[in-house]
Write a sequence for this structure.
Protein backbone atom coordinates (compact mmCIF):
# COMPACT_ATOMS: atom_id res chain seq x y z
CA UNK A 1 0.00 0.00 0.00
CA UNK A 2 1.20 3.50 -0.82
CA UNK A 3 0.79 5.03 2.65
CA UNK A 4 1.07 8.62 1.51
CA UNK A 5 -1.51 8.11 -1.24
CA UNK A 6 -3.85 6.37 1.19
CA UNK A 7 -3.58 9.33 3.58
CA UNK A 8 -4.36 11.67 0.69
CA UNK A 9 -7.42 9.59 -0.26
CA UNK A 10 -8.61 9.59 3.36
CA UNK A 11 -8.14 13.35 3.82
CA UNK A 12 -9.88 14.15 0.51
CA UNK A 13 -12.78 11.84 1.41
CA UNK A 14 -13.29 13.75 4.66
CA UNK A 15 -13.13 17.13 2.91
CA UNK A 16 -15.49 15.99 0.13
CA UNK A 17 -17.84 14.22 2.60
CA UNK A 18 -17.93 11.02 0.59
CA UNK A 19 -15.98 8.50 -1.48
CA UNK A 20 -17.62 9.35 -4.81
CA UNK A 21 -17.06 13.08 -4.41
CA UNK A 22 -13.44 12.44 -3.39
CA UNK A 23 -12.92 10.22 -6.44
CA UNK A 24 -14.25 12.93 -8.76
CA UNK A 25 -11.99 15.50 -7.15
CA UNK A 26 -8.93 13.25 -7.50
CA UNK A 27 -9.86 11.97 -10.97
CA UNK A 28 -9.84 8.28 -10.00
CA UNK A 29 -12.40 5.50 -9.63
CA UNK A 30 -14.47 5.39 -6.45
CA UNK A 31 -13.33 1.82 -5.86
CA UNK A 32 -9.71 3.02 -5.76
CA UNK A 33 -10.53 5.48 -2.98
CA UNK A 34 -12.49 3.01 -0.88
CA UNK A 35 -9.86 0.29 -1.32
CA UNK A 36 -7.01 2.50 -0.11
CA UNK A 37 -8.97 3.93 2.82
CA UNK A 38 -9.97 0.38 3.84
CA UNK A 39 -6.31 -0.68 3.62
CA UNK A 40 -5.26 2.33 5.74
CA UNK A 41 -7.79 1.41 8.44
CA UNK A 42 -6.58 -2.19 8.36
CA UNK A 43 -2.96 -1.15 8.81
CA UNK A 44 -3.83 1.20 11.66
CA UNK A 45 -6.12 -1.34 13.27
CA UNK A 46 -8.92 1.15 13.81
CA UNK A 47 -11.97 2.59 12.07
CA UNK A 48 -11.41 6.12 10.77
CA UNK A 49 -14.75 6.72 9.03
CA UNK A 50 -18.37 5.97 9.82
CA UNK A 51 -20.00 5.00 6.53
CA UNK A 52 -23.63 5.54 5.55
CA UNK A 53 -25.49 5.42 2.26
CA UNK A 54 -25.31 9.22 1.91
CA UNK A 55 -22.06 10.35 3.46
CA UNK A 56 -19.15 9.53 5.73
CA UNK A 57 -18.26 11.00 9.08
CA UNK A 58 -15.19 10.83 11.27
CA UNK A 59 -14.84 8.52 14.23
CA UNK A 60 -13.03 9.85 17.27
CA UNK A 61 -9.83 8.16 16.12
CA UNK A 62 -10.47 9.39 12.59
CA UNK A 63 -10.76 13.00 13.76
CA UNK A 64 -7.37 12.80 15.47
CA UNK A 65 -5.79 11.15 12.44
CA UNK A 66 -7.34 13.72 10.08
CA UNK A 67 -5.89 16.61 12.08
CA UNK A 68 -2.42 15.09 11.93
CA UNK A 69 -2.61 14.34 8.20
CA UNK A 70 -3.67 17.93 7.57
CA UNK A 71 -0.58 19.13 9.45
CA UNK A 72 1.60 16.85 7.32
CA UNK A 73 0.13 18.07 4.02
CA UNK A 74 0.35 21.71 5.08
CA UNK A 75 3.99 21.21 6.08
CA UNK A 76 4.71 19.66 2.67
CA UNK A 77 3.01 22.56 0.91
CA UNK A 78 5.08 24.98 2.96
CA UNK A 79 8.26 23.08 2.13
CA UNK A 80 7.46 23.31 -1.59
CA UNK A 81 6.63 27.00 -1.29
CA UNK A 82 9.82 27.74 0.63
CA UNK A 83 11.88 26.56 -2.32
CA UNK A 84 9.74 28.24 -4.97
CA UNK A 85 9.67 31.41 -2.88
CA UNK A 86 13.31 32.12 -3.74
CA UNK A 87 12.52 32.46 -7.44
CA UNK A 88 11.85 35.59 -9.47
CA UNK A 89 8.17 35.91 -8.52
CA UNK A 90 6.51 35.41 -5.09
CA UNK A 91 4.45 32.23 -4.94
CA UNK A 92 2.60 30.29 -2.26
CA UNK A 93 0.81 31.39 0.90
CA UNK A 94 1.90 34.40 2.96
CA UNK A 95 0.50 34.29 6.50
CA UNK A 96 0.06 37.75 7.97
CA UNK A 97 -1.08 39.38 11.18
CA UNK A 98 -1.81 43.09 11.61
CA UNK A 99 -3.86 45.41 13.87
CA UNK A 100 -7.59 45.34 13.15
CA UNK A 101 -8.37 48.93 12.19
CA UNK A 102 -5.02 49.59 10.55
CA UNK A 103 -5.54 46.51 8.39
CA UNK A 104 -9.12 47.40 7.57
CA UNK A 105 -8.57 51.08 6.79
CA UNK A 106 -5.01 51.33 5.47
CA UNK A 107 -4.16 47.93 3.98
CA UNK A 108 -7.42 46.25 2.89
CA UNK A 109 -8.51 48.85 0.28
CA UNK A 110 -5.32 48.17 -1.70
CA UNK A 111 -5.11 44.38 -1.46
CA UNK A 112 -6.86 43.88 -4.80
CA UNK A 113 -4.10 45.73 -6.63
CA UNK A 114 -1.43 43.81 -4.71
CA UNK A 115 -2.94 40.42 -5.56
CA UNK A 116 -3.38 41.41 -9.20
CA UNK A 117 0.32 42.29 -9.30
CA UNK A 118 1.26 38.90 -7.77
CA UNK A 119 -1.21 36.30 -9.13
CA UNK A 120 0.76 33.31 -7.80
CA UNK A 121 0.62 34.61 -4.23
CA UNK A 122 -2.13 33.82 -1.71
CA UNK A 123 -2.65 35.86 1.47
CA UNK A 124 -3.87 34.38 4.75
CA UNK A 125 -4.54 37.35 7.04
CA UNK A 126 -5.45 37.54 10.72
CA UNK A 127 -6.29 40.93 12.15
CA UNK A 128 -5.67 41.29 15.85
CA UNK A 129 -4.64 44.04 18.24
CA UNK A 130 -2.76 41.48 20.37
CA UNK A 131 1.02 41.27 20.04
CA UNK A 132 1.09 37.80 18.55
CA UNK A 133 4.28 35.81 18.87
CA UNK A 134 5.92 35.04 15.53
CA UNK A 135 8.18 32.48 17.13
CA UNK A 136 5.53 29.75 17.10
CA UNK A 137 5.51 29.77 13.30
CA UNK A 138 1.86 30.75 12.84
CA UNK A 139 2.75 33.84 10.82
CA UNK A 140 5.38 34.69 8.25
CA UNK A 141 5.06 38.42 8.80
CA UNK A 142 3.46 40.70 11.38
CA UNK A 143 2.73 44.42 10.99
CA UNK A 144 2.88 46.30 14.28
CA UNK A 145 2.45 49.92 15.33
CA UNK A 146 4.56 51.62 17.96
CA UNK A 147 7.54 50.15 19.76
CA UNK A 148 9.58 47.64 17.73
CA UNK A 149 9.74 44.11 19.05
CA UNK A 150 12.18 43.73 21.97
CA UNK A 151 12.80 40.12 20.88
CA UNK A 152 16.25 39.90 19.33
CA UNK A 153 15.25 36.74 17.45
CA UNK A 154 13.01 38.77 15.14
CA UNK A 155 13.97 40.98 12.23
CA UNK A 156 12.33 44.42 12.49
CA UNK A 157 11.93 46.37 9.24
CA UNK A 158 10.62 49.97 9.59
CA UNK A 159 7.86 50.69 7.06
CA UNK A 160 6.87 54.24 7.93
CA UNK A 161 5.64 56.50 10.70
CA UNK A 162 2.36 57.91 11.92
CA UNK A 163 1.18 60.65 14.25
CA UNK A 164 -1.30 60.66 17.09
CA UNK A 165 -3.84 63.47 17.10
CA UNK A 166 -5.91 64.90 19.93
CA UNK A 167 -9.46 65.08 18.58
CA UNK A 168 -12.97 65.89 19.77
CA UNK A 169 -16.34 66.38 18.12
CA UNK A 170 -17.86 69.84 17.58
CA UNK A 171 -20.76 68.75 19.79
CA UNK A 172 -18.42 68.03 22.71
CA UNK A 173 -16.51 71.28 22.27
CA UNK A 174 -19.63 73.44 21.97
CA UNK A 175 -20.07 75.64 25.01
CA UNK A 176 -16.70 74.66 26.48
CA UNK A 177 -13.61 76.81 26.79
CA UNK A 178 -11.28 76.16 23.84
CA UNK A 179 -8.22 74.03 24.59
CA UNK A 180 -5.17 76.25 24.17
CA UNK A 181 -2.68 74.38 26.37
CA UNK A 182 -2.20 70.69 27.30
CA UNK A 183 -2.74 71.35 31.01
CA UNK A 184 -6.37 72.21 30.21
CA UNK A 185 -6.94 68.55 29.31
CA UNK A 186 -7.26 67.76 33.02
CA UNK A 187 -10.60 69.61 32.95
CA UNK A 188 -11.97 67.39 30.17
CA UNK A 189 -13.33 63.89 29.69
CA UNK A 190 -10.45 62.03 28.06
CA UNK A 191 -11.08 58.75 26.26
CA UNK A 192 -8.00 56.59 26.71
CA UNK A 193 -6.50 53.63 24.92
CA UNK A 194 -5.70 50.76 27.27
CA UNK A 195 -2.31 49.08 27.02
CA UNK A 196 -2.52 45.77 28.88
CA UNK A 197 -4.41 46.45 32.08
CA UNK A 198 -3.76 50.17 32.32
CA UNK A 199 -4.01 53.36 30.29
CA UNK A 200 -0.79 55.33 29.91
CA UNK A 201 -0.37 59.00 30.72
CA UNK A 202 -0.47 61.33 27.74
CA UNK A 203 2.85 62.90 26.83
CA UNK A 204 2.92 66.13 24.78
CA UNK A 205 5.95 67.89 23.43
CA UNK A 206 6.55 71.20 21.67
CA UNK A 207 10.14 72.13 21.01
CA UNK A 208 12.06 71.69 24.27
CA UNK A 209 8.89 71.64 26.38
CA UNK A 210 7.56 68.23 27.37
CA UNK A 211 4.57 67.53 29.59
CA UNK A 212 3.22 64.24 30.94
CA UNK A 213 -0.42 64.35 31.99
CA UNK A 214 -2.43 61.83 34.00
CA UNK A 215 -5.74 62.43 32.24
CA UNK A 216 -9.06 60.93 33.34
CA UNK A 217 -12.36 60.19 31.69
CA UNK A 218 -15.39 57.91 31.50
CA UNK A 219 -14.00 55.41 28.98
CA UNK A 220 -10.92 53.39 28.19
CA UNK A 221 -10.59 50.55 25.71
CA UNK A 222 -8.03 48.48 23.82
CA UNK A 223 -10.04 49.02 20.63
CA UNK A 224 -9.14 52.25 18.83
CA UNK A 225 -12.26 52.33 16.66
CA UNK A 226 -14.51 52.08 19.72
CA UNK A 227 -12.77 55.19 21.08
CA UNK A 228 -13.22 56.89 17.70
CA UNK A 229 -16.95 56.15 17.70
CA UNK A 230 -17.31 57.45 21.25
CA UNK A 231 -15.43 60.60 20.26
CA UNK A 232 -17.69 61.12 17.27
CA UNK A 233 -20.66 60.74 19.62
CA UNK A 234 -19.38 63.64 21.74
CA UNK A 235 -18.15 61.66 24.75
CA UNK A 236 -14.83 63.44 25.13
CA UNK A 237 -11.32 64.03 23.80
CA UNK A 238 -9.29 61.12 22.42
CA UNK A 239 -5.68 60.60 21.37
CA UNK A 240 -5.89 58.58 18.14
CA UNK A 241 -3.73 57.67 15.16
CA UNK A 242 -3.89 60.13 12.27
CA UNK A 243 -4.75 57.34 9.77
CA UNK A 244 -7.82 56.50 11.86
CA UNK A 245 -9.32 59.99 12.12
CA UNK A 246 -7.90 61.90 9.16
CA UNK A 247 -11.11 61.61 7.11
CA UNK A 248 -13.25 62.63 10.10
CA UNK A 249 -11.14 65.75 10.63
CA UNK A 250 -11.24 66.63 6.93
CA UNK A 251 -15.03 66.24 6.90
CA UNK A 252 -15.50 68.33 10.06
CA UNK A 253 -16.88 65.44 12.11
CA UNK A 254 -13.93 65.83 14.47
CA UNK A 255 -11.69 68.77 15.28
CA UNK A 256 -7.98 68.43 15.90
CA UNK A 257 -6.76 70.05 19.13
CA UNK A 258 -3.30 71.42 19.92
CA UNK A 259 -1.91 70.63 16.46
CA UNK A 260 1.42 72.31 17.28
CA UNK A 261 2.08 69.74 20.03
CA UNK A 262 3.34 66.21 19.35
CA UNK A 263 1.32 63.75 21.39
CA UNK A 264 1.75 60.14 22.45
CA UNK A 265 0.62 57.77 25.21
CA UNK A 266 3.64 57.60 27.50
CA UNK A 267 6.89 57.02 25.64
CA UNK A 268 5.11 55.14 22.84
CA UNK A 269 6.92 54.97 19.52
CA UNK A 270 5.32 56.29 16.33
CA UNK A 271 6.85 53.77 13.94
CA UNK A 272 5.12 51.17 11.76
CA UNK A 273 7.18 47.98 11.60
CA UNK A 274 7.26 44.65 9.80
CA UNK A 275 8.46 41.76 11.98
CA UNK A 276 9.59 38.37 10.71
CA UNK A 277 11.91 35.51 11.59
CA UNK A 278 15.46 35.51 10.21
CA UNK A 279 14.76 32.38 8.15
CA UNK A 280 12.40 34.51 6.01
CA UNK A 281 15.24 36.72 4.80
CA UNK A 282 15.26 36.42 1.02
CA UNK A 283 11.61 35.34 0.90
CA UNK A 284 9.95 36.80 -2.19
CA UNK A 285 6.58 36.67 -0.46
CA UNK A 286 7.76 38.67 2.54
CA UNK A 287 9.75 41.11 0.42
CA UNK A 288 6.80 41.74 -1.91
CA UNK A 289 4.44 42.60 0.94
CA UNK A 290 6.99 44.81 2.66
CA UNK A 291 7.55 46.74 -0.57
CA UNK A 292 3.77 47.07 -0.97
CA UNK A 293 3.43 48.51 2.56
CA UNK A 294 6.35 50.89 2.06
CA UNK A 295 4.66 52.25 -1.06
CA UNK A 296 1.38 52.79 0.80
CA UNK A 297 3.03 54.47 3.77
CA UNK A 298 5.49 56.67 1.87
CA UNK A 299 5.07 60.34 2.91
Amino acid sequence: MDKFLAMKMFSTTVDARGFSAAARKLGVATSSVTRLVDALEAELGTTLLNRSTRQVSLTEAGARYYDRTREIFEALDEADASVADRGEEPVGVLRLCMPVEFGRRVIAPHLGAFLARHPALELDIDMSDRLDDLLDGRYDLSIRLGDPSPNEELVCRPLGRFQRWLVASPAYLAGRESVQHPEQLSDHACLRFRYGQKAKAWRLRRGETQLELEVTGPLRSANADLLREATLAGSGIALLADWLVREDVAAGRLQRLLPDWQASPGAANDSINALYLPNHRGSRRVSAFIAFCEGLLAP
Summary: The domain at 92-162+270-297 is CATH 3.40.190.10 (D-Maltodextrin-Binding Protein; domain 2). The two ends are 61 Å apart (CA to CA). Residues 60-84 form the longest helix (25 residues).
